[in-house]
């Protein structure tokens, strides 16, 4: 059985999240007045938000609850998105992949009351920990839509708990469920439920989280039915189509304003694949703008690797590309307008990437630790378009995300404790303003866990949580600063990491200084000091070890000589620049200047 | 606290200052005058003295002066607070810079985050000192280096800071270092406002606690000055009752406490509105209410199930982008009001109408104010629909420029302006309904069981439509919708909240520690009430606990039982939590272990006045002061000591007494019926003329000085003895003949 059949657009080698605008309709189109259109648009938007709130406030997994690593919304029968929750950028259009995944097996067999579970990363899932729950919606006996949700579960079985950079294949990641009916026509398959919760490390948490996803989808179904009851099926469908066309035209308009051409990002490199130290993993990115369409081309990127840092195409890479384009061209802070998130956002965005690369791996490559890999795509697209979109791009971003999992055995309770920490990043300098410091970067948008909560719960003590002490990358607009966290372990600990230091630091643009790489250091400033890799699994450290984690600093934007004098003085006062800029003040290495400045 | 129950409530709005006096015989007087923007105290004093004089009383007789203020809120909104320095534990100066590291917008790289772009305390003014206590035990790990504190104080003094927040890690477990540092800083910085994080909120979660203290320092000096001046001015006039302020938590606190903790005042106005709405519901026997407080630029929506005040979840206690860890009533504010501007945008091949959040503001205001506004607003839509009438606009105090309204609405490009106007109202109403649904249904509360209390100047215009969109049970319009906040102040109790993080799992709880903490908190609460001389019989101690399943990241607040803290007590707390979790999220996990994170004690002085005016069937006198500056006695008949109206009786006024009053006039107004704008003959009533038992049937307009009640076709209901109008959608078709507008 071939497991690698994500279809390209007919007659091309391009992938796209959207099946395209409607050519045939399963409703009778009606003319809409601007009032009804506004009200139905508002209702769809509110429904997606409400669905997400149910999910994240009642869930157990910290990744759903704190990170809002979830997606929720309403879709048509082939996966066109009517609306999506504004919870995390990670799931902008991942659920259409899930829907295509289940349709290939179940289309035509759905019944009212079905609840379908799916997490197959080779058939649309974002990655195996992101379970999807999908409920078909019916109107007068006909299947007309889906309510769907996905969320990151605490554990899905597999070789190791938490992070598993070194999984050898997709089976080692965890249990894969391919389009299974948890409920058939309203009746739960108890044997399947037992199987779903069996052989995972957090069965009761998973049960709570899956129930939360079901509640969330049921709410979506209810809201949809209320809307149809009030306005009529034909009107609701017509309004949904109009809103998709609206978002599509907004994005196409923005793309049209970019001069046609092929724009190349400088080659990027990941530190390594998590196993083969010192062997960088290549990322190639070019952007082709043609009229009102945009193609992100990842041809030339590294071949798929034998660790888990490959990225599922449909559920992860396409959403990332959608995010990159939407954020650059429809940045709400620039346009002042919130364009609704729906299928229209996907239609003008195409992806080219050869089968067999890290961004289009073939089965059965492992692909669960893909975050540091995919978050480089928007940074690359940003650099590629710097020359033509100078007022939308940022200097190079931290892009990589450093996740660490700490765990240990507690003899008092006889149980393991586990804590996954997602460190923040930083943005490069921006046109007219400095880069954001110490904040989640690009596709990542999570909350931190309070230091006091960690200390109350776990045998860990903080010796500091703040901005990195080195000066910010210089520029007319400075780069943002990443953070430094210092943890002391009060008991023996097992540490795993998934991240990327960026051996190629975030790139300065228009003469701005490059950013600074990240580090993880054991017992910093002692004779035992040693640096660790950005990706590793299962490192045991004794009690009283002190671990220092530094995440990359963003790059500068524009010639530092053009920085405003007041800003310069503020930098010194607020500690973003050394008192003596000639020496760097703190013994820091001489700055390098970006190769892509003009 | 004086024994007198002569009370005054003063609400200071952007345009008007509303004053309501309530006496021991449950009579009341109102006074409305323009707000003295340069110094709000001026109008307050003038208004209070005027209302006292009109009631024929002496200033010295006043038992309480209750005040809702936006002074602190405005400082934060306008980013016009003091220059703040922070003194913090070494290694943690950037906690305020990192915040919770989440971006408010997902799809934006150019967004600004206020904690970095416009910090409350800039990075160069955040000083670090050596000290550390243990988060779990409070034991000192590193002693406070006092020379560090003095040096930090000197540097901040040189920088000219106006206030200082002391924010130490783990201080919730042991506040001694913070307290000592404050004492040292007060020596180094004489006259400077110094606050500590544990003083503002002694709970765990460093970012929220630090930020609460920083914001307290930011608004502290100027709010304090305002309150001191007001208190002195009031005392100089012979009012010895002092001033009490409405807190975000829906109770009042003394001016002295408010001056130390102005961060408690940030939601003062919306909280008073909720208290007022709760009272309106209770007075007519409807404990389940949704308060809809519509002003010119925004709408505050609160949900009160069974008369119980609900508090915001920690993740939602945010004002102007600042997360704060203080008790706030669960009120949501949206940018939709009478002044919200409508526009038409192209959507794909279609056009779409949107309304707000941009507002015409107070000046020039909506086009129909005739002050040069040209963009169409919700008020203009109401004028076009015939809901606002030139003859009676603002009680005749203002001119309604109908032509300007029509011109503005016509700019939207609809085939006819009536449809455009009806559309503006529909879109606005749906935005309100949508927010209400999130506030209620998300928490397991079904709006069908609720009455909407429509208040604020514009609330009564939209109340019925919002109720219809939600399927709410009914709509209540209080006698004075425009004075709701001032009435809310009269209906509020004194309330001092004290809290502590205890972090105890049910299975292994240290009951002695819990009992000791509770006793300490209760002593503090008693002390606060004693400071306000609350007599013992009016004192009430309320316990609650913030609880979660061990392993969850957030708590829910549940009531905790009185009595001894033992295993049974813990069991009751757990039971209450399972129930609340079930209600909030649709499920609970009774087999899972429960963790008590925080304990909270509220010391309540039960001093609220019954604000429902008593009447005995006579004509209601509901006219508030008109024109502004005049006062007027509510000539309600008095039944001294009358019990509150019995709930059941109030809920269903005797139908036999109902009669349909003759309208003051009948006009043609436009209504949205079955998807199109239809002109219908519409009865217009003067609210002053209505009597209890009068039955109002839509389509109708009920006009009063500061508001117009819009009763759409299909809605009908009686006037209650206290003047509240209760409207309901009658089942079945309610279309009457009309012609397309």
UniProtKB/TrEMBL annotation, chain A:
Q: InterPro entries from the xrefs?
A: Hydantoinase_B, Oxoprolinase-like
> What Pfam families does the record point to?
Hydantoinase_B
> Any one Gene Ontology biological process term?
glutathione metabolic process
Highest taxon above the source species: Bacteria
Q: Which residues form the Hydantoinase B/oxoprolinase domain?
A: 33-560
Which segments carry the region annotation Disordered?
568-598
Instruction: Give the record's GO CC terms.
Output: cytosol
Which Gene Ontology terms cover its molecular function?
A: 5-oxoprolinase (ATP-hydrolyzing) activity
The record's annotation in PANTHER family points to:
5-OXOPROLINASE RELATED (PTHR11365), HYPOTHETICAL 5-OXOPROLINASE (EUROFUNG)-RELATED (PTHR11365:SF23)
What is the protein name for this chain?
Answer: Hydantoinase B/oxoprolinase family protein
Give the species.
Answer: Kineosporia babensis
From TrEMBL, chain B:
Q: Which Pfam families match?
A: Hydant_A_C, Hydant_A_N, Hydantoinase_A
For this record, an example GO cellular component is: cytosol
Chain intervals for the UniProt region annotation (Disordered): 643-662
Give the Hydantoinase A/oxoprolinase domain ranges.
Answer: 209-497
* Residue spans crossing the bilayer: none
Residue ranges constituting the Hydantoinase/oxoprolinase N-terminal domain according to the UniProt record: 7-188
Q: Which residues form a coiled coil?
A: 504-531
Q: Which UniProt keyword terms apply here?
A: Coiled coil
Biological process terms from the Gene Ontology for this record are: glutathione metabolic process
Q: Name one GO molecular function term.
A: 5-oxoprolinase (ATP-hydrolyzing) activity
Domain named Acetophenone carboxylase-like C-terminal is located at 682-716
- Official protein name in the record: Hydantoinase/oxoprolinase family protein
Species annotation: Kineosporia babensis
Q: What is the lineage of its organism?
A: Bacteria, Bacillati, Actinomycetota, Actinomycetes, Kineosporiales
